[in-house]
Amino acid sequence: MKKRILTFLLIYVYFIFLFLFAKILFLFYRIDIYSSAGLDGWCAILWHGLSMDLSAAGYLSVFPGILILASFFLKKNNIITLSANVYFLFICLFLAILIVADAALFGYWGTRLDRTVFIYMDNMKDVFASISSMEIVLGIAGMSLCFLLTFVGYRRLIFTEIRKFNPLKGSMLPAMAFLLLLGTLFIPIRGGITTSTMNTGHAYFSSNANYNQAAVNTFFNFGYSLMKLTHFSTQFHYFPDTETEAVLQQLSDRNQLADSIPQLLTMQRPNILLFVLESFGATVIEPLGGVKDVTPNMKAFAADGILFSQFYANSFRTDRGLVSILSGYPAQAMTSIMKYPNKTQSLPSIPKTLIDNGYNCELFYGGDIDFAGMRS
Description:
The structure is a single chain. By secondary structure, the chain is mostly helical. The chain has helices at 2-29, 31-34, 38-48, 50-70, 78-109, 124-129, 133-162, 172-183, 186-190, 209-215, 218-227, 241-252, 254-257, 296-304, 318-327, 341-344, 350-356. 56% of the residues lie in helices and 0% in strands.
């Protein structure tokens, strides 16, 4: 029983150190980007990405944990050892390819490897056309070396313990205890016991997008993107393309609108405070026909400022409405772009525009900052 528990913990810790090694390897490979971060920056990257490493290690430890649980009841251990070898052979090979390809492609894409790679599977000739023969050779060599290191590490550290498992008499009670231990993987996989669950934005901590990208666990990021594999372009396509383009062009034609925008402010560089209220509507704002004297301050603001009486909510969820408010991005019916940090960081936004114009921006949020990718 004790040997099985220690082996299970060893597997979990092995994956954690494997991901930390992969992250350090990524930082060294992209030293041209991360040399300026210094030791403090590297430590911050490793620390803020650790929770995602714990989650990814939890996912990968589930199947070995099930194998160990099965060993409580099997008289012969050869099925367990064979299954463990096949599993780790596949995982080590997959991680080796993922780690090396991720580091190599980051310089071209600027984001960590995700399901986007499948878009180019039908046109591999063009993909390899932009990669030199030397890069291909070094990539294959790097993948081979990474695979050998990880698989040999498994054979030396983990497999030697698994092959020592002996049948247990009266194994039902120990098996139940081990099942409870296996169930604790739910906590790191989920990302803790708070309201929010683990997402790629959980690792974001810096205003420097490259630092945030380095903190992301590449295995978790790849798997998370596969879970979001939805072809949004085929949804809600109501109008012909020509009509859609005409409407969008009218909305985005700034040249026509430039002379019609009135000057609303009495100063050139005001201090700007943007309040975003949850579950707040016109039904409680008196000037908009709402209940009288419920929001006296709002009534005062409306009298002293500019009141938009035809301004409607863009969505029914916080994560969609916020992107609409800050970036002018229309809410999507079946998903939220906030859950795709690689996309949200490329959107235009009020804070980015203010910063570009010399403003200092601060965000104060009263909820769980990791909910629905809020941190990113």
